[in-house]
Every structure is written in C-alpha cells, then in structure tokens.
Amino acid sequence: MVDFNIAHKRLHNQGLLETRFVKASEVVQWMGAVQSQDYPAAKWALAQRAENLTDSAIEQSFADGEILRTHVMRPTWHFVAPEDIRWLLALTAPRVHTANAYYYRSLELDQELFKRSNDVLSKAVQGGRQLTRMELASELRRAGIIASDLRLVYLIGGAELDGIICSGARRGKQYTYALLDERVSAVKALARDDALAELTRRYFTSHGPATEEDFMWWSGLSRTDVRSGLEMVKAGLAQETLSGKVYWFAAANLPAPQIAPVACLLPNYDEYVVGYTNRNAIFDASHADNLDGRRNPLFQHTLVIDGQIAGTWKRTLKKDAAIIEFNPFA
User: Which of helix, strand or coil describes residue 183?
Assistant: First the structure.
C-alpha cells in the first residue's frame, strides 16, 4: 500500500467520512459496542455516524430497546445491540469480574451475596417493571442487603454483567433497569470461539486499521484471546506494517480518495479516540498542554480536522440556541 493513512481509513471505517446508516441500532451493531457512560455525548457519537439522525429518534430507539446500555467489556457502560448482548456478556464479563475483584473484596461482595442480590433484582423487575437505581436500592435493603454508594454500583453492575438486568426506557431524566430476559428476545447462543471471532471481525472492520494492543484495550480480552480471534478471521482482513507495528483492517472496506477536507465535532469518549490504546496516529502529544489537567483528549469534546485532533470544543444550551465555543490548538 503506497499511502497508508491510518487516520483517514479510520474515519472512513467508523462512518465519519460517509455513512450508510440511518438508525442508531445500525451504528451500534456495526461498531460492535459504543462507549456510553456519558449518555448525551454517546447519543451525539451515534448521530455523527448516521444520516439525519435526531436526538428524539435515538431516544425512541433506546426506549424501545432497539439499542441497550449495559456494562460490558471494560468496566464501563456501552451501547450494544439486543441481538449481541448475550454473547458479548458471555465473552467479556468474566474478564470484567476479574478486573473488579479488588473492589468486590474491599466491599465484602462474594458469590453468595451476588446470588442473593441477583435474585432480588430479578424479582423486582419481573413483569415488565422498569425501576430506577434508587428503587432497586430500596428492594435490596428490604431484603437485608446493604446497598449504598459503591456497594450499590457494584451490585447493580454485577447483575448487568451476569445478564440479569439491562437498561430500560428513561423515566424523564432518570435511567431505569429492566429484566434482560424480558427486554431481549431469546436467540441462539454463540459458542465462545464464534463469539470471539465475531467481536474480532467487528472491531477490525469498524475500527481498523488497528493493532493487537488496540483491540486488547478496547475489548478487555487477554492477548491470547486477541491472537486467537485474529487467527480465526485474518483471511478476511488485510494488514500493513508501519514503524514495526502490524495494523489490521477489512480488506474490502478501503476508502475512496478524499475529495475535500473533513471536520468533525466529536464528543468525549468517542470511539474514534477511545477505541485505541495508542493515539499517535490522530493526536500530536505536544498539544497535551492545551487540554485539561489529565492531558488526555479522551475526556474532552474534540475538533477533528482531516483525521487529526486539532482542538477542543464545548457547547452551552440556551432556551433557543446552542452556543459552540472552540479551543483550536493553532
């Protein structure tokens, strides 16, 4: 490959140059999962990758369960597709539980307590009930389970990882939880190798060009799993070596020549930034002083020009306007 422009190809594969998507669910399924702990920002990330997708349309998709929000992969929230949630959890939840083990011990959360908590939470949302975090906390306390602060966070997060509950529709500005078995139709389970191959294929198709290390960070999987996944799907991928690193991407998904400069206003935690452990291809570290004290573009809304993070931006919502302020690096 004569011109191996990593940033340009990532823009294309992530749907930021042009898009074939019109629904939020299509974007989520293409990406495999979309980080969403900042819910409004995550909605903006979906809309950036679809044609004429509005906030109200995304909210309706979320309310209807066409996209779900749960803890999966790294211990944080992601949007996932209903048809994918079970095999994603089966594949990645054990690793998240392992990552959480220190907090489980310090909060005195053992397997027996998680079983009790899961039973309480399951019964609380049966019959189509969708309850807020505080309502779930009340149910746990009523059953004699201490559920406050971090303890509540990990009890509910554990139930998400175990496939007991997932997101329900929003109630005003509050988030609710629903019974996963009622929210999602039963689908045939994937064998672990099939699930690993599917997640590997989705990641490198939607996020490529990317390295083993990038996928390991994004998925939370072990290096052994990452290499096994690549071995299973590499026949459908292309690869290029740059500065000693091997980059994988979909062989049949190469971008057309760029016709005009492209600018994007991306939200914090956008997959274009969070999807990679090494961001050298899209961010010049000499600009870190222009960021906040964490010196990481992941945590701020980014102005991206021709694939490069060229500044940050913020918005202020007024009654009849949205005020956009830019902080360009140059």
Answer: helix
